[in-house]
Write a structure and sequence with these properties.
The complex is a heterodimer of chains A (about 475) and B (about 400). By secondary structure, chain A is an alpha+beta fold. Chain A has 12 helices and 22 strands. Chain B has 2 domains: about 130 residues, 3-Layer(aba) Sandwich (Peroxisomal Thiolase, Chain A, domain 1); about 230 residues, Thiolase/Chalcone synthase (Peroxisomal Thiolase, Chain A, domain 1, 3-Layer(aba) Sandwich). The chains are: A alpha+beta (about 475), B alpha/beta (about 400).
Chain lengths: ~475, ~400
């Protein structure tokens, strides 16, 4: 039996109030808010956060069981080279574990999940997307940024929290929306034409799935209907015989593209009871339907960073800063030299440190070295060290400074000296904070970020962010969040 | 195995320093030629009288040919040295040891930096290829960590520490205003500095060293030969240097209220020189005031003030030009400017003037003490190099 072992998601901290758009341009915008990836996040770094969450949530240690990582997005950081290798490195998976990308179309996200559920082995499927468009456009305000990861495997190897019932697919070639590679703006055909295509495609796939499973629409406990064509998404449930559909989060997060189906699935799983049937219906150049049934194990499963909690634990970002972060507005840069590109060979030598945040610990004194060192600050012989994985460590701000001179894509830099629980100290940049709200004694955790980009090379490393979720499994509640960017 | 020091074995017989400023019209070569000529003239020697040369530059050029080519030094050894912001002092230290060893009769140390050709303000280190995980924090940001930490450790109102730091800038600007070679010759009040916008932590731009082009040099000979060249040489009493482990930055015990490398290098220098009570034995100190808070902490690390009291002593004016221990009477990095490779030699140049009574009258200190101290650091709190020298106008 195939099914879902674990899941986790990352909703970026920042929210753009859509009314800010019309306030700026006198047009566009709308109601509600959308999630905004920070200037130091891209689809790869967000995927790492979602993947870390999925591995942390698993009831049994999962990292050593993963055989493949599939990364899917419409906004990859790189072409030609694989983006999933950075996720693989940050999750510290073995060299024998595969990592590959399914890129380009929104359909890639759900297709990856379907392929994993229908295939063999244990696969971590991570959808991650940054959605936008030109200012005042519908895609800019309706889009959202997020990542969601689902670990899929076999009940022979893992405890499943949801079992696969069946899948169904319809495919059709028609021009609904399209984006030329390299452009930020998508274009769409007549809405009504697309609706005329999508609704029958959804009906056909849904009917096939129900027939295969010998189920009726009324048997569905949680129905998720999503896709980038909002009009079809809105019209489909009634045509599918579904009375109630799960919240699609477009009012608070926006449509997160290739990540959205798995994000919504994660949100439903956060609330699902045992033995409930979940239908996932995705409209994307056809329709994809996945039916799963939750197991008793879901009662024991705890999402340490529940979707509703991540939605609540947010801070706002101004529209001006949003445009700057997205490169839609290019302000005068600081009169400092641009950062230089990270050295590929130096980075390859320090993969465990740079991507895995693994320091070293003196085997005699326990002194933690960040970055790892061969000789200890407490003396003793060289190479008396063992790896010290610190990515999941939490810590406390000992002192901090706000640096308005240092280079940053979004100044000022807030730097803190962090003492980690259980040992280790590091001066580290803080993110997802407002400079004036930082204080000595603040509790922080580590997060994987994109520090900068030079010569097209994305420079990934770790920063600290406020620990907004209490440690420990199950029903974690976020600390009240506040602040603006 | 021991650090033996070279007390009274080597003497400085001449020094020269060009103005530190934005030398838009002078190249690195020009500054080297001018500073070398002032230094030769000071000692009453010519280029060919020097047996070996040490050139300090942090990042303006590489190799000894940087000096030998513009000066047309033929058939002589020229060594380029670099040790962060202590580069100039390192050049002098190497020249002193070369003479003390007997390898050479005469040696020159010269430091230079051309920082103003980058097109950017401030100091920008040249990029060395790395894995991209290096800290992005500026030096100002790193040193700014010390201000609140100091206030917290000693239970002092942070505003009082901030004012004491600004008072350091006020003092150094006051002194710089009396120094025709200094980059900044305008007096600044501590109150006005406190009111400026912060650029890093609570530090404003005027809590940071000036950034200038410049060059300075010294000529050293064996002490017993000094009077052949000079009536009133300065004798090298102590030279100490500590390169830290970098451990402070990752050590949870590190407090950001002291710089252990500075304390260790001072202790070693006092041992070499036989100084037991620096506060009463030292006539003046030139210290590395890269940021105002750095000078405040240094007053304690160098043993001039008890822990937790430097801020008060600064506010009381004890380190002013007319205080009992004048610190940075030439304006320091703050007002004199900081051409990295030249600064260490510039600090010694002020000792050269003051201990021999040749400083301009408006800033000549009056003292019966004969020892001066130079402290020159490079790096950041927790990971730095620190140099301390003690020079004296008397033997013994």
């Amino acid at each position: 039996m195939r099914g879902i072992i674990s899941y986790g998601a990352h909703v970026p901290f920042r929210r753009l109030d859509r009314s800010d758009i019309s306030g700026f341009f006198d047009s566009g915008g709308g109601r509600g808010s959308r999630s905004v990836a920070s200037y130091d996040e891209d689809t790869t770094s967000m995927a790492v956060e979602a993947g870390r969450s999925a591995l942390a949530n698993a009831a049994a240690p999962l990292a050593s069981g993963i055989e493949d990582v599939w990364f899917t997005t419409t906004a990859p950081a790189y072409l030609d080279r694989t983006n999933a290798t950075a996720i693989h490195a940050a999750l510290r998976l073995a060299r024998s574990v595969g990592a590959s990308d399914l890129l380009g179309s929104q359909r890639s996200g759900i297709a990856a999940l379907r392929a994993a559920l229908r295939g063999g082995g244990t696969t971590l499927v991570v959808g991650s997307d940054i959605r936008g468009g030109w200012p005042t456009g519908a895609d800019e305000s309706d889009g959202g940024d997020a990542a969601a990861a689902v670990a899929v495997g076999d009940d022979a190897d893992h405890t499943l929290i949801a079992e696969l019932i069946t899948t169904a697919t319809t495919t059709a070639e028609f021009v609904d929306r399209w984006r030329v590679p390299g452009e930020t703006r998508s274009r769409v055909w007549d809405d009504r034409f697309s609706e005329a295509q999508y609704v029958p495609l959804a009906q056909e796939a849904f009917a096939a799935a129900l027939e295969a499973a010998e189920l009726q629409p009324a048997d569905i406990d949680h129905a998720i209907v999503t896709g980038l064509h909002a009009r079809s998404v809105k019209r489909s449930p009634a045509k599918l015989g579904l009375d109630v559909v799960a919240p699609d989060l477009t009012d608070v997060v926006g449509n997160t593209g290739a990540a959205h189906p798995t994000l919504l699935l994660a949100d439903v799983l956060d609330r699902a009871e045992p033995d409930q049937i979940i239908a996932l219906v995705v409209l994307a150049d056809g329709a994809e339907v996945i039916l799963v049934r939750t197991t008793e194990a879901i009662t024991e499963f705890g999402n340490r960073r529940p979707i509703a909690g991540q939605i609540a634990a947010s801070g706002s970002v101004s529209y001006a800063k949003f445009l700057r972060w997205r490169g839609q507005i290019q302000p005068e840069p600081a009169r400092r030299p641009d950062p230089t590109r990270a050295s590929a060979s130096a980075a390859a030598r320090s993969t465990d440190w740079k991507f895995g945040f693994v320091g070293s610990a003196d085997q005699t004194t326990g002194a933690i070295h960040l970055p790892p060192a061969r000789a200890s600050i407490s003396g003793g012989p060289v190479d008396n060290m063992e790896p010290a994985p610190m990515a999941d460590a939490t810590g406390t701000v000992v002192t901090y400074t706000i640096d308005r001179l240092a280079y940053s894509p979004s100044p000022p830099i807030v730097f803190a000296v962090v003492d980690f629980d259980g040992g280790g100290r590091m001066p580290v940049e803080l993110t997802d904070v407002d400079a004036e709200a930082v204080g000595i004694g603040d509790r922080v955790e580590m997060t994987f970020r994109r520090l900068n980009e030079a010569d097209g090379i994305q420079n990934y490393f770790w920063k600290a962010r406020p620990a907004r979720f209490a440690a420990g499994a199950g029903n974690a509640t976020p600390e009240p969040a506040e602040g603006d960017a | 195995m021991a650090s033996n020091g070279i007390k009274d074995q080597v003497a400085i017989i001449g020094m020269g320093c060009i103005p530190f400023k934005e030398h838009w019209d002078a190249s690195l070569d020009d500054m080297l030629i001018d500073a070398a000529q002032l230094t030769f003239d000071s000692a009453g020697v010519a280029k060919d009288d020097i047996d070996a040369f040490w050139l300090g530059t942090a990042q303006s050029a590489m190799a000894g040919i940087t000096l030998s080519a513009p000066l047309k030094i033929e058939g002589k050894p020229v060594t380029r040295v670099e040790n962060y912001c202590a580069t100039g002092s390192e050049a002098l230290r190497q020249a002193c040891y070369a003479v003390a060893s007997g390898a050479y009769d005469t040696a020159m140390a010269i430091g230079v930096e051309k920082v103003k050709d980058s097109g950017y303000q401030g100091l920008n280190a040249f990029p060395i290829p790395n894995d991209g995980t290096k800290r992005a924090l500026t030096a100002a940001g790193m040193f700014a960590l010390m201000l609140p930490a100091y206030a917290e450790k000693f239970g002092i109102d942070e505003d009082d520490v901030r004012m004491a730091a600004a008072r350091v800038a006020e003092k150094n600007h006051y002194n710089g205003a009396r120094n025709p070679l200094a980059q900044f010759r305008r007096e600044m009040s501590a109150e006005s500095i406190c009111q400026m916008a912060a650029v890093a932590g609570r530090l404003s731009v005027f809590d940071c060293a000036g950034v200038a082009d410049g060059a300075a040099g010294a000529i050293v000979v064996r002490a017993e030969d000094a009077h052949k060249y000079c009536e009133n040489p300065l004798y090298v009493k102590a030279l100490s240097f500590v390169a830290g482990t970098g451990g402070g930055i990752i050590d949870p015990e590190f407090t950001f209220t002291t710089m252990p490398e500075c304390e260790a290098s001072a202790t070693e220098a006092y041992r070499q020189a036989g100084v037991t009570d620096p506060r009463t034995e030292i006539a003046l100190a030139e210290v590395h005031d890269c940021f105002t808070i750095t000078e405040l902490i240094l007053m304690e690390d160098l043993g001039f003030a008890e822990r937790g009291t430097a801020w008060r002593q600064i506010l009381d004016g004890n380190f002013d030009l007319d205080g009992d221990l004048p610190v940075n009477p030439d304006g320091g990095l703050k007002a004199f400017g900081h051409p990295v490779g030249a600064s260490g030699l510039r600090m010694h140049y002020e000792l050269w003037l003051q201990l021999r009574g040749e400083a301009p009258p408006e800033r000549q200190i009056t003292t019966d003490r004969t020892l001066g101290l130079v402290h020159n650091l490079g790096g950041y709190p927790g990971e730095m190099v620190s140099f301390v020298s003690i020079l004296g106008s008397e033997l013994g």
